[in-house]
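Q: Hi! First time asking for a complex rather than a single chain. Here are the components, and I think there are two in total. Is that enough to go on?
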Amino acid sequence: MGHKVEKLKPAEKTSSLPVLVSAQAVTKIYRSRHGDSVEALAPTTLDIREGEFLSLIGPSGCGKSTLLRILSGLEPLTGGTLTWRDGPPTAGSDVGFVFQEPVLLPWLSILDNVRFPLDVFRTPRAEANERARAMLALVGLGAFEKSLPKELSGGMRQRAAIARALVYSPRIVLMDEPFGALDLLTRDRMNDELLRIKAETGSTIVFVTHSIEEAAYLSDRVAVMSARPGRISAIHHLDLGPQRSEAIKDDPRFYQWLSTLRKELR
Amino acid sequence: MNDTALRRIFTVATPLLLIAAWWGYVELFNVPRFVLPPPDAVFGELVRLFASGTIWPHLAHTVGIIVAGFAIGSAAGFALGFALGKWPRVERVVGPYLFFFQTAPKIALAPLFILWFGLGLTSKIVLTVSLVFFPVMVGTMLGLRSVPANLHALCAILKLSPRDKLLRVELPAAVPEIFAGLKVAAVQATIGAILAEWLSGGTGLGYLMVFAGTTYKTPLLFAMVLVTSLLGIAVYQALALTEKWLLSWR
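A: Yes, that's all I need. Here is the structure of the assembled complex.
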């Protein structure tokens, strides 16, 4: 196959985008109460580039969620360094995170939920409302701003959660299997929505999934991970062009990528 | 005939039938008034209590104890429940004592409260407080502890200050459990106040019941049972309505 395959090289020459965050030999070791230690993430080196869509794909226990949580600051790292281009994220508005479940505040309306980060950051109310409404329109929930989360479907709730993660224009958006709980049809629609949102906002997105097709469809680059200990076994730059659409699923190159990724995950 | 119409008829008919059966029984078997008074005697007593104004000082006394006991008890219960919910280590220190006081029957403590705090209002309020305290404490603790892990993670991502986290996430999330505790506490407060008046003093609905019982004024006793039941329902409903308003999102 004629694809460019990078094997854990420190720099990716396939991309000319500036590096947003660089992980150097990042490790995570969990210690149990009895003193046993489990290496959730073996020394991992990865550059995340400004404006790219990078997927982390791999079986359960490969450390993909751990890596994401380390990037988010939710988990401290045990070893290695994370270097951010503009210094480590210190403000709440630096990182956007989308969980597998929508994690909305059930007592707030959809508008209030999306505006929640801006309220916490003390953004003036008029501006906050304007930005939250614009984001709701972007995710196609403009007509539902007064609804409560329980009144919406799972897919709509997740769209609201995505809007909440994007409303404050974070430096990086981290998504932990955001569509894993949705049915296949909704998932396909959400993928197209996400591509459209990405095209409009230009956000840097790191996306954890265990769907090969989802990773190939969405990503500029795919990092394939393997388990015990969790590590990145290969990083691929997908030459499927920046403008993705349903049509790409008929492209032979898309099928080649699916087969390449599937083999590597075996 | 549709369901709602049928239900309405039952709502009116059932109590009327019960009253009719009661009345019929008293008339047919010539039951003495001090054993079971007829409904009209109870109703007459009720009207007399309110028309003459006899009831007001007693009702005010009881309501006062309920309000004071409920306010102090839920404030203290909330404070300790808050500490236990936010800092589980506190439980290691106070846990065993809490368990002892929680399981001890408060009624058994009532004579002790009278010995310690006298025959006046204080001992009555203390008894009510002791009944209100635990349900509110447990509700607050459970509510704060049941905040989902994902919400904590969201707060960490957005770097919420502890104050913002508490006011914007933890307390609103704990409201259902806190209210479950408050509702139980409200019923307990009513029981506590009446029981305390029953044990000592010369005012209050509880005292009136003892007085009616010991002097064979059975219609008065029956009227008092009605008044205290209605009071309990009113206290509970007041909280249920507040809850409904606060939890309209559920």
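A: Residues 1-14 of chain A have pLDDT under 50 and may be disordered. Let me know if you'd like any chain examined more closely.
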